[in-house]
Design brief:
The chain is mainly α. The protein contains five helices and no strands.
Amino acid sequence: MSMSFGRILLGASALIFIAYGTICLFDPNVPAGFTGLEVPTGDAFAEVAGMYGGLQTGIGLFCLLAFFNREFYRSGLMALGLTMGALAMARMIAILATVQPVTAYSHAAFGYELVTAALAFLALSRTPYDST
């Protein structure tokens, strides 16, 4: 049995989101360090852990569910495409709006988000709708 491109994308995305999310959940200074953010208070620690750790882990778990459960396959691709597309769009708007220089981190993150969104929508468009 061959594995579809969409399932490969969901599986790879699940691994990336869960791994990075777990790291960020337990050490919010990791994503903060990549971006130049500071985590000076308990509220900041909780915010970064929640948004970078909890949210990304949750997205990864949904991708994993969609990888294993056929009933969630299309919605998994849709969620992945919308999430990554919205991240890419917001990041591009922010890059264009700031007068401060951005590093390779922002450009690489934008590229990863844009490509992942495009691939998710491509896989979704090639998947027949199954109403059962």
